[in-house]
Amino acid sequence: MLLAQLSDPHIGADWGIGDPVAGLAATVEAIRSLQPQPDAVLVSGDLADTAADSEYAQVRELLSPLRAPVYVLPGNHDERGALRRNFGLPGVGAEPVQYSVDFGSELRLVAVDSLRPGEDSGSLDRERLDWLEAELAAAPELPTLIAMHHPPALTGIAPWDEIGLPDADRRALGEVIARHRQVRRIVAGHVHHTFASELAGCPTLTIPSTFVQARLNFAAEELELAEGPAGFAVHAMVDGGVVSHLQPVG
User: Fold this and answer.
1) 199 is in which domain, residue-wise?
2) Which of 54, 62, 163, 182 is the most buried (most CB within 10 A)?
């Protein structure tokens, strides 16, 4: 079982650096070159930059060469209703976009909505955590990968941590994870940078953007972005565990 993950394409962005369309197209071609092909592809948020329907249409067109089903979840630049309209996601209107996909007996993907509408920072309120608790309790023996946009960990870089998940929400998520040991990994995007951590003993991994990357500067006082190689992850089920490979593009 192979699950490819890409994140933060920001189609429609005009930030004066990088080319979001070229970055996503190159990443799709890199995924198409994998042998064997992944069984599924996850896009962990910020598909569009302004959440316009035309941007989502372009995302769909750019993803169309992939030879595997594509699963998406919202980031802080996305709008739930528009994402639902364009990708046929479950639920209605502006309610959280949350769902699970079972890939036989090898892996379960659980998509969790960390969006706080109108804000760059994330949120995991009691309603979303209760949904996750019930979803995990429904399949306690099935190895599970949880995907969200905002990483459930601190980076140590103040401007990024200010737009992450609040401390209380991360602790509450950790309490849920501690009760469900079938969760093998939590994956995220948002920070345009690769970093690994853990939550309640569960490994977490955040992957780079297909667009522009964050500079590693622990003294930064504001977000620092620069052109850099796009990247994606491939999560492989090996002997009941998740092994994650990070692959640069270009």
Assistant:
1) 2-248
2) 62
Q: Please choose, from the candidates 29, 35, 50, 3, the residue with its C-alpha nearest in 3D space to the C-alpha of residue 210.
A: 29
Number of DSSP helices (H) and strands (E) in the chain, helices first: 6, 13
Q: Which residue has the tokens 């309120």?
A: 125
In sequence order, which residues have a C-beta less than 8 Å from that of residue 14 and are 6 or more positions away?
Answer: none
Q: How far is CA 222 from CA 78, 150, 160, 171, 218, in A?
A: 22, 18, 8, 26, 11
Query: What CATH number did the domain enclosing 13 receive?
Result: 3.60.21.10
Write the DSSP string, 125-146: -HHHHHHHHHHHHT-TTS-EEE
Average pLDDT for 221-233? 95
Q: 250: pLDDT confidence band, cut at 50, 70 and 90?
A: confident
Q: What is the pLDDT of residue 167?
A: 97
End-to-end CA distance of the chain: 25
